[in-house]
Amino acid sequence: MSKDKKDIAVIAVSGGMDSCVTAAIAGLNFELAFAHINYGQRTEKRELKSFNDIADFYNVDKRLVIDYTHLAKIGGSSLTDKNIEVTKADLANKEIPTSYVPFRNANILSACVSWAEVLNAKAVFIGAVYEDSSGYPDCRPSFFEAFEKMIVEGTKPSTKIKIETPIINFSKAEIVKKGIQLGAPLNLTWSCYQNEEEACGICDSCALRLRGFQIAGVDDPIKYAARPVYI
């Protein structure tokens, strides 16, 4: 490999702000390959649009879209089962919310690692956030450390793939600031759990995002049906 040629990294890009900023960070040192999972979520079409818009912004040629229909069939989440209501945000809640998709990040990482091995990529980046997240168990640092050990056990001896979670200890406000610092296209991202035209402003994801922008003192550039103040 020439000195000018960068190693490849696979980035799990949902289309949301966290994965967009993660891609911006990864792009500082790696050639980007973007992976996206359709799993029957309520905003599947809108998230896919954001994924492609962000990929276009970064001129990413390597793109992989995978349909994980089994997560919708399994259900158990308000994101995949329309019989389960997307609950209104409660930022003081310490329980795992209805939006948790059982073991989703393991499914996402499995696909990304498979592709990374084929591409001879050196890293898989995922925009997981722990401290300011909705309390998902598969966003804990220990989960990603364990998954990295599984990669060693389950891939070829020559395969060396690191799991990178560069914003895992960031608050949403810090993510906003980092995105602005790196020129990430936050206006192209989508975080709402239930709407595809205008973000609802009241689901967990919208509330966490809006609070991050509000604490950062920056206007969120996407459209909202409602913009409650969360600080």
Please explain how this structure is put together.
The protein is α/β, with parallel strands linked by helices and 231 residues long. The chain has a single domain, classed as Rossmann fold, CATH 3.40.50.620. Helices cover 36% and strands 11% of the residues. The chain has helices at 17-26, 44-57, 69-74, 104-119, 141-154, 172-182, 204-216, and strands spanning 8-12, 31-38, 62-67, 123-126, 162-164. Helix 5 links the parallel strand 4 (123-126) and strand 5 (162-164). It is globular and about 50 Å long.
Q: Shape, please? A: globular
Helix-and-strand structural type: alpha/beta
How many domain regions? 1
And the CATH topology? Rossmann fold
Fraction of residues in β-strands? 5-15%
Question: What percentage of residues falls in helices of 4 or more residues?
Answer: 25-40%
Which CATH architecture would you pick? 3-Layer(aba) Sandwich
Name of the CATH class: Alpha Beta
Output the strand order for the largest sheet: 3-2-1-4-5
Query: Which residue ranges are poorly predicted, with pLDDT under 50 across at least 5 consecutive positions?
Result: none
Radius of gyration: 17 Å
- The number of helical segments is 7
Order of helices and strands: EHEHEHHEHEHH
